[in-house]
Amino acid sequence: MPTSEFGVQEKYTYLNGFSCYHESEALPGALPLGHNSPQKPPFGLYAEKFSGTAFTAPRHENQQSWLYRILPSAAHKAWEPCLSKGNSAINFSGTDMQQIPNQLRWDPFDFDDSNDWISGLHLVAEAGDPVMKSGLAIFVFAAGKSMTEHEAFYSADGDFLIVPQHGVLDIVTEFGRMLVRANEICVIPRGIRYRVLTPDGPVRGYVLELYQGHFQLPELGPIGSNGLANARDFQVPTAYYENDTSTDWTLISKFNKKLFSMTQNHSPFDVVAWHGTYYPYKYDLGRFNTIGSISFDHPDPSIFTVLTGPSHQVGTAIADFVIFPPRWLVQEDTFRPPWYHRNTMSEFMGLISGDYDAKTGGGFRPGGASLHNIMSAHGPDASAHTCATEAELKPQKVGGGSMAFMFESCLMVGVTAWGLKHCQKVQEEYNQESWEPLKVYFDEKVVSNGMDRHG
Ligand SMILES: O=C(O)Cc1cc(O)ccc1O
Ligand SMILES: [Fe+2]
């Protein structure tokens, strides 16, 4: 591990564990012992409390952290509407949002080297309202340069689940630094300040912003105590600070989908130590312990849930983050790809790499996306159907090197004007090409009871 210019600090070291109490200090002794807010915190630091839930939220849901920093976050000039970020205010607005039942699919979104993290975010779909802390938003991003020096960002609207599809994000946060590559994800909860650097060139990917609550691991039920995304594989950055109280910094806030900015004469990345339960984290999708059917039939995709953002209704998510990792299919006498279906949930899908087994027609490509809104019928395209019904049902490894994912929501999402028009990536023929070629096989004279497996 490299040692930083601050001597004792190390970039990119992590604490392991999801939803645990963590603590980290970049200077030994910076965390007060035994209490949170001593009269004079160690090293002349300020103590700042940072709440991710109401103070009175039940213990098992409560998320709060204590930050020990050089200056409190309150030391800054007034917030003003931010005019300097190109068209990003428009990028976040959903004024022309349309809820439509058409199946939608997008060609890979363009890379754009002229953008940084903030100007490279485009709102594609949304349901709900950050004012009411309800619902979710779905963005794609494409950036080719690091955020301007001495600039930091946060969203007051919700938690960002970031899914890079291409490139490396070096994310400097108040809690420490995270390196997040394609096939990894990270979550930056509401309010946490960060900068995104692009050390390896262009980046592209997807963001799910959860306006309500926080992401949790799904229940495991009869699976037992391990499986799917294991808690210990989530990685939390360690304290990493810069001692800069002489530079003008610009902070940009996404506040009800509009950008505001302010300046302060000190770095927001001045947290020398922290402890608590509210922090950013990352996860390598390659560590997902995939579980599936070893007898017959295609299981519900909930078996692939990495993280869930629950609604108030038990078992019903505002947003599930679901992945389709490489896995073995061994089911007997089974149509192995996803069944044809209509879902009371909306399904936004993206592809990080490779192919997706329900779509063999070639139109679902890495960096692209699809949306099957509430009750919009979909399933394997005609070519995937032919392959699946004709295939010899020997054990088959699907998706070697591939990774698709889904943001599944109980809410009907609207699609922005950018998503429907301005991005110019909508595949006009998606529906016709995928399902109209499906052949009729029905023959009243041929009896098949589908009981071969038992026979
Ligand atoms: O539509 C899709 O491709 C996603 C999906 C996958 C699956 O295995 C079962 C249901 C489902 O919606
Ligand atoms: Fe589906």
Report on this model:
With 455 residues, the protein is mainly β. It folds into 2 domains: 14-95 and 114-285, Jelly Rolls; 287-436, Jelly Rolls (Sandwich). It has helices spanning 88-92, 382-390, 417-422, 430-435, and strands at residues 14-16, 22-25, 46-51, 64-69, 80-81, 104-106, 121-129, 134-143, 151-155, 159-166, 168-173, 176-181, 184-188, 194-197, 203-210, 234-237, 249-255, 258-264, 271-276, 281-284, 305-310, 317-324, 327-329, 346-353, 369-372, 396-398, 403-409, 414-415. The longest helix is centred in the C-terminal third of the chain and has 9 residues, at 382-390. 2-(3,6-dihydroxyphenyl)acetic acid binds next to loops.
